[in-house]
Write a structure and sequence with these properties.
Number of strands: 2
Strand content: 15-25%
Largest sheet: 2 strands, parallel
Strand order of the largest sheet: 1-2
Order of helices and strands: HEHHEH
């Protein structure tokens, strides 16, 4: 059981951790390297909190396509 954070229970750690990163324009990605690095560090944070692995989903797609990806991720979560 995880002792790092009291709100994270064993039942949570049995689920897949998915980090969804939405990239903005190429110019924003180029100019905000620190923000990009912090976003990718979220997978390390999930592992630190007790998840054995984390899946990182990066989207640089137009809004409508990104919305479809978010809906699919939501469905995956709801179905377990």
């Amino acid at each position: 059981m995880n002792t790092t954070h009291p709100k994270i229970l064993a039942i949570h750690l049995k689920r897949l951790a998915v980090i969804y990163i939405r990239q903005s324009s190429p110019l924003q990605v180029e100019n905000h390297l620190e923000s990009k690095a912090r976003q990718y560090q979220l997978t390390e944070r999930a592992q630190f909190l007790g998840w054995p692995s984390a899946r990182c989903v990066v989207s640089s797609l137009p809004t409508k396509m990104a919305s479809t990806i978010r809906q699919n991720l939501t469905t995956d979560f709801c179905l377990g």
